[in-house]
Every structure is written in structure tokens, then in C-alpha cells.
């Protein structure tokens, strides 16, 4: 194969013959029939056959190849905006061609734009089965792919790797049979089921794909679990003391998750646990209890958060909770003065300080944590693999720390079962008592004045309000400008109130001073960009206004709304939107308006966006699912998960061969 073609195929993630076999059609086209040009209808794909009446390169309005084809019933125009000289040759006047494409009503009558062309002899037979259409990339035509795939189908062994009883139990066809049925559908194949990936062949392939994903994730999990870690005995004195000192009782969910984590920490292999809990479900205290388990065994633990604001808030909370227990917490962020930091770094290095909270400053070089036994990562999806690995390698005792990942972006169950199968999961599925549900209102931009009045009323009633400025993804400068203007306009409209502003460009010290003032009630209105998105906790704030809400993602809206409803007061979230709404914008607003449960919102989000973006932030190198669908194939996911466990213990060689078939060498990419 020439290197240029090989390079292009690599873009399709095809690195060898084996990958070609698993490069399955995106859809199918029906070329088994020829439609008379006269009958071909606008808006539908069709195949027509006729003689080329004319063919020329036109230069206006832009360079394009235009041909007219006629059959006994009529004629149509075919048009290519990008074309090769070879294409032009296929269309010499008087030659006979078949065109496949969608018919559109054009200025000069019916036309096809970019149809596929096939030169034919008069009376040449038609294909008997549906024609596969493959995912492709620039410079690799369908014909080339088909030829390559057919060759691969002849040379690559298609032996069945699934144990026979499993196949029978799940009623799946053999591998070879399944693969062939997808690349070369039988003449009587049901086009609808094939398109919808519902045939037995598709089921078999989807199952195998899911199985391989489970195998690789479980294997990564087992490999990490095989390493040593510091066993932290659950003595319980410090955690108990903290729980007793809290002004509230733990929820059942918190107690349950806490117990799961405590049991993990007591083991001599590293914990790999995801603590999932909706906004406001109280993850911080669960993390604090785990950190205390490390501390009372004389080992260090850290809590890393993605933003300065959030890290500082964690620090304040932990420091206040732990001071009465006689424990000090180090605070590591980019904003601290060098001298202050140095003293703390020294005490962390000596092992005298056992607890630290910080931003990614924690993983930077001068920080040494020789006795690190537990690392907690808040909003884990905000960190990349590399950052988590750097944290993992901070200890100097040759063993991995226990890892507790926290996420307030609820992950739908099917997604957790697939893409997060390498983690144990604890879920906080219960909010602390006494929260009043948040009322969500959708308000068009024209009624902005009324919203300002609501802010005034809420603050006069002793509450506080957030005003979130529009997200402007294209330009940070513009976003900043808008934030400043919004701030000035609100300050002018509400002269009797103290209004503050936070945005990403402020110096960390300024940001934290503003946040502290809002927290203390010295500011009543906080105008903010999305820097407040994660984790900020000011229970007295009861009104959240989000401008241009249609521009925000669902997870973001849910996070932002979760900043209120944290106290006992009736809370309101006002989503201001601008017309006209795009279809997805409208869909998102509808979801956020109708649902308050994070898991329900995540499920809808998954439906609207697909899993790619969801897990994209995980930066994992994890192969995404190409064929299986989390929503529709939930049944297969369960079966794949169970079989993966069994294969790994009972038939590891089969597991190896399955992974080799699907992943080639790519398994090495799986994050450690
Ligand atoms: P999140 O899960 O979003 O990180 P936090 O840990 O910030 O939630 O907790 C949200 C708020 O709820 C905090 O003010 C916290 O002190 C409070 N809280 C946590 N657990 C409980 C509980 N069991 N009862 C009452 N309030 C609680
Ligand atoms: Mg939090």
C-alpha cells in the first residue's frame, strides 16, 4: 500500500488489515434499482442511468463541473464543486453512466449535486444487494475502501472468539457471518433494520465492541489494583469527632459512601473510586472524613480543586472543621506569597503537616508530599490524565496513593457502566434535608427590567443574588467587556445595593476578596462570568440570574442553578434567553426547565449530545464506542460486563485475542 493512502487510512483509525474488517458501513444505499429521471423525486436519494449529453467546466459563479444526463423519460443536471480530471473523463459526451444521489429542484430543472458516478455498458446488470457506504476521509473514495475491505475479508481470519454457549445464550450469530452480513448484505436483507443497526449481525458486533471495552477497562482496573498502597486502618476517632462537631447529621447517602470509602482505604491496594453526587449533595464532608482517616494513621492527604475560588472555599471549610480537632491544613495556590508558601512547603516535606488543599499548584514541582496516602480530586473531569498521574506520583514511598475522584456532573448509569468501568462508584443520591426546591423561570430578554426588579426585591428581603453574564466562546475579551458592562449597568440600576464583579481575568487575590465579601454578605449582588460555575457555596444566596442561558450547556446550567437553593429560603433561578432560539438551545432550556434532578438532566444531555463530548474531557485515550449505543443497547452492556469479568478470570487468552482484534496496539493508550 502506498504511504500516502496508508496515512489517510490512519486518519480513519485503520492501521492494518484487521482494522479494515471492523470498518463497518455508516449506512447503505439502494442501487438495486434504476429510477426513470422523470420519476425521481426531489428530496430523495435515487439512482438514475442515462447518456451524457454535455459536460463542461463552468467558472461562474465558481469553478464547477456541470453535466447533463438524459434517459428516455427526461434529463437532469449533475454538478460537482470539487472534482478530479478522472471524473471529467468518465463523463465524456455520449458515454453511459449511473448516477446515485439526492435529486433537488434547481434553477435549471432537477439536479443532483455531487452524485456518485459509475460508467456502465448498455444493459449492464444491477447489484443484487444494498451497497455499503463507509465512513471516509478526504482522498479515500468509497470504491477504494470497498476494494480494500473486500481484500481484507479474504485474508484476515474471521474466527469466532466468543464461547459457543455465550453465543447461544445471547442468540448471537457467528463473527464471520455477522461481519459479512454487514459488509455485504444479503439481497433479501431488511434495509430498515440494517440502517438502524438492529440486525443480528449488528447485535453481535455491538456486543463484541462493548465486551472489548469492558475487558480493557477492567484490565486497567485490575492492573492498578494489583499495586500496593498504604493500608489506612479505620480507627475512627478523628472522623467521629468531626461528625459530632458538625451542626448537621450526615445523610444516609453520605454515611453509606463514607463507609465504602473507609473500607477501601483500609486495604493495601489503591482505592480508585468515583464519588458522584449532584450539586449540593455534600461531597466535601465525605472527602474530609476520608482525609481524617489518613491523618489519624499519620499519613498525608490532599484535596485538589480545579479553580482558585473552589480550592479556597474547600480550604476554609476544612480548616474550620479541623482546627477544633487540632489539625492544620496547608493551603497551596498560585496566589499565595512565596514566603508564606515556603514555610508550608517545608512542613509538608517534613511530614509534619498532614493535610493540604490546593489547585493544580499542588502537583507542581516545589511541592513534596513524602507521605501522601490519599489524593482527592474534586470536579475530576476538569483535570487531565497527566495531572492526575502527577498527583499520584507525589508520594515518596513507592506506592500509589488511594484516589478519590469527585464529580458533580452526574453520569448516566449506562455511561458509568461503560466509560467508567475502571472505577468503583459511590453515589450520593440524596440531598441534605431542609432544602427547598428551586423554582426555574424562563424569561425573554425583552423583560430584563422585571428581572432587575426581582433582584432588588430579593436583596431588600435580606437575601443575595448571582447574575451570570453571557458565555461568549469566541472571544474572551468580548466576554470580559460584557461582564464589565453588565456590572456597571446593574450597579447603576440598583444604587442602594452593593454589587460586586468576578471574572477570570482578576488577580487571584482580588477574586478571593470579592468572593469572601459576597460570602460574608457585604456584597448583595455578584455579577460573574462562569468562574462561579463549580462548587461555590453561599447558602444565603437565593436568586440566580443567567443571561443568554441558551448559550450554556446543560451541565453548566445545572451547576449554575445549583448555586442557589442551599439555604432554607425559597430560591429562584431565572434563565434569560434571546430570540431566535436554535433547536438545541430550545431543547436544552426545556430540559433544564422541566428537570431538577441531575441524573435526569444528564440523561437528556447524553441524548442531545451523544457520549463523545461527555467523556471527551476525560482525555483518556479510551476508544469511544463506534457502533453500540448507550441508550438502545443497555441490555447488551449488562451482558458484556458480566462476561468480561468471567473471561478475565476463566479465559484470559480469549480476552487477549478479542482485545487484539479490536484494539490492535491501541490498548497501550489506556490511561494508567
Ligand atoms: P457538593 O456535593 O456540591 O460539593 P457541598 O459539599 O459543597 O456539596 O455541600 C453543600 C452544602 O451542604 C454545604 O453548605 C454543606 O455544609 C451542607 N451539607 C453537607 N452535608 C449536609 C447534611 N448532611 N445536612 C445538612 N447540610 C449539609
Ligand atoms: Mg463540591
UniProtKB/TrEMBL annotation:
Keyword Transit peptide: no
One annotated GO biological process: DNA recombination
EC annotation from Swiss-Prot or TrEMBL: 5.6.2.4
Enzyme class: isomerase
Keyword DNA repair (UniProt): yes
Pfam families: DEAD (PF00270), Helicase_C (PF00271), RecG_dom3_C (PF19833), RecG_wedge (PF17191)
Helicase C-terminal domain mapped to chain residues: 461-612
Catalyzed chemical reaction(s): ATP + H2O = ADP + phosphate + H(+); Couples ATP hydrolysis with the unwinding of duplex DNA by translocating in the 3'-5' direction
Keywords: ATP-binding, DNA damage, DNA recombination, DNA repair, DNA-binding, Helicase, Hydrolase, Isomerase, Nucleotide-binding
SUPFAM superfamilies given in the database record: Nucleic acid-binding proteins, P-loop containing nucleoside triphosphate hydrolases
Gene Ontology MF terms: 3'-5' DNA helicase activity; ATP binding; ATP hydrolysis activity; DNA binding
InterPro entries to which the protein is assigned, alphabetical: ATP-dep_DNA_helicase_RecG, DEAD/DEAH_box_helicase_dom, Helicase_ATP-bd, Helicase_C-like, NA-bd_OB-fold, P-loop_NTPase, RecG/Mfd, RecG_dom3_C
Known role: Plays a critical role in recombination and DNA repair. Helps process Holliday junction intermediates to mature products by catalyzing branch migration. Has replication fork regression activity, unwinds stalled or blocked replication forks to make a HJ that can be resolved. Has a DNA unwinding activity characteristic of a DNA helicase with 3'-5' polarity.
Identification of the protein by name: ATP-dependent DNA helicase RecG
Amino acid at each position: 500500500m502506498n504511504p500516502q493512502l496508508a496515512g489517510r487510512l490512519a486518519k480513519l483509525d485503520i492501521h492494518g488489515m484487521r482494522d479494515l474488517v471492523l470498518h463497518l458501513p455508516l449506512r447503505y444505499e439502494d442501487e438495486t434499482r434504476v429510477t426513470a429521471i422523470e420519476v425521481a423525486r426531489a428530496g430523495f436519494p435515487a439512482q438514475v442511468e442515462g447518456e451524457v449529453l454535455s459536460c463542461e467546466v463552468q467558472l461562474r459563479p465558481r469553478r464547477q463541473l456541470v453535466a447533463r444526463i438524459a434517459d428516455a423519460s427526461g434529463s437532469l443536471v449533475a454538478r460537482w464543486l470539487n472534482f478530479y480530471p478522472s471524473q471529467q473523463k468518465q463523463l465524456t459526451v455520449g458515454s453511459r453512466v449511473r448516477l446515485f444521489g439526492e435529486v433537488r429542484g434547481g434553477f435549471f430543472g432537477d439536479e443532483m449535486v455531487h452524485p456518485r458516478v459509475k460508467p456502465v455498458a448498455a444493459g449492464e446488470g444491477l447489484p443484487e444487494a444494498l451497497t455499503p457506504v463507509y465512513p471516509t476521509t478526504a482522498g479515500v473514495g468509497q470504491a477504494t475502501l470497498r476494494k480494500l475491505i473486500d481484500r481484507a475479508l479474504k485474508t484476515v481470519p474471521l474466527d469466532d472468539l466468543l464461547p459457543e454457549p455465550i453465543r447461544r445464550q445471547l442468540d448471537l450469530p457467528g463473527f464471520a457471518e455477522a461481519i459479512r452480513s454487514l459488509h455485504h448484505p444479503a439481497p433479501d436483507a431488511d434495509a430498515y433494520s440494517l440502517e438502524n443497526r438492529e440486525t443480528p449481525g449488528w447485535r453481535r458486533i455491538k456486543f463484541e465492541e462493548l465486551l472489548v471495552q469492558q475487558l480493557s477497562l477492567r484490565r486497567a482496573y485490575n492492573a492498578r489494583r494489583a499495586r500496593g498502597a498504604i493500608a489506612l486502618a479505620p480507627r475512627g476517632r478523628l472522623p467521629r469527632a468531626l461528625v459530632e462537631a458538625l451542626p448537621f447529621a450526615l445523610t444516609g447517602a453520605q454515611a453509606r459512601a463514607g463507609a465504602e470509602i473507609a473500607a477501601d482505604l483500609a486495604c493495601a491496594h489503591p482505592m480508585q473510586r468515583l464519588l458522584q453526587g449532584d450539586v449540593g449533595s455534600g461531597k466535601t464532608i465525605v472527602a474530609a472524613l476520608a482525609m481524617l482517616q489518613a491523618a489519624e494513621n499519620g499519613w498525608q492527604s490532599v484535596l485538589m480543586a480545579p479553580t482558585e475560588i473552589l480550592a479556597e472555599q474547600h480550604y476554609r471549610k476544612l480548616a474550620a472543621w479541623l482546627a477544633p480537632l487540632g489539625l492544620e491544613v496547608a493551603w497551596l495556590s498560585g496566589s499565595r506569597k512565596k514566603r508564606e508558601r515556603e514555610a508550608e512547603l517545608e512542613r509538608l516535606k517534613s511530614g509534619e503537616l498532614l493535610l493540604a488543599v490546593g489547585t493544580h499548584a499542588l502537583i507542581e514541582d516545589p511541592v513534596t508530599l513524602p507521605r501522601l496516602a490519599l489524593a482527592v480530586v474534586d470536579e475530576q473531569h476538569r483535570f487531565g490524565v497527566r495531572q492526575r498521574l502527577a498527583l499520584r506520583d507525589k508520594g515518596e514511598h513507592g506506592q500509589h496513593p488511594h484516589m478519590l475522584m469527585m464529580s458533580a456532573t452526574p453520569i448516566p448509569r449506562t455511561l458509568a457502566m461503560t466509560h467508567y468501568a475502571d472505577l468503583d462508584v459511590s453515589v450520593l443520591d440524596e440531598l441534605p434535608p431542609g432544602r427547598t426546591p428551586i423554582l426555574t423561570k424562563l424569561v425573554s430578554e425583552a423583560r430584563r427590567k422585571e428581572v432587575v426588579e426581582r433582584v432588588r426585591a430579593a436583596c431588600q428581603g435580606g437575601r443575595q443574588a448571582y447574575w451570570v453574564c453571557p458565555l461568549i466562546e469566541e472571544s474572551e475579551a468580548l466576554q470580559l467587556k460584557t461582564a464589565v458592562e453588565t456590572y456597571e449597568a446593574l450597579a447603576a440600576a440598583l444604587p442602594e445595593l452593593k454589587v460586586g464583579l468576578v471574572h477570570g481575568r482578576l488577580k487571584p487575590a482580588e477574586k478571593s476578596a470579592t468572593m469572601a465579601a459576597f460570602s460574608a454578605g457585604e456584597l448583595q449582588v455578584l455579577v460573574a462570568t462562569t468562574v462561579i460555575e463549580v462548587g461555590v457555596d453561599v447558602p444565603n444566596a437565593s436568586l440566580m440570574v443567567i443571561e443568554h442561558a441558551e448559550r450554556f450547556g446543560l451541565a453548566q446550567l445545572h451547576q449554575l442553578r445549583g448555586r442557589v437553593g442551599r439555604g432554607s429560603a425559597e430560591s429562584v433561578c431565572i434563565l434569560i434567553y434571546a430570540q431566535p432560539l436554535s433547536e438545541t438551545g430550545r431543547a436544552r432550556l426545556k430540559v433544564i426547565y422541566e428537570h431538577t434532578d441531575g441524573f435526569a438532566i444528564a440523561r437528556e444531555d447524553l441524548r442531545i449530545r451523544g457520549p463523545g463530548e461527555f467523556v471527551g474531557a476525560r482525555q483518556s485515550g479510551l476508544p469511544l464506542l463506534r457502533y453500540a449505543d448507550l441508550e438502545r443497547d443497555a441490555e447488551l452492556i449488562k451482558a458484556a460486563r458480566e462476561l468480561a469479568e468471567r473471561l478475565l478470570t476463566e479465559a484470559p487468552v480469549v480476552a487477549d485475542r478479542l482485545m487484539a482484534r479490536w484494539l490492535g496496539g491501541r490498548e497501550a493508550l489506556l490511561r494508567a
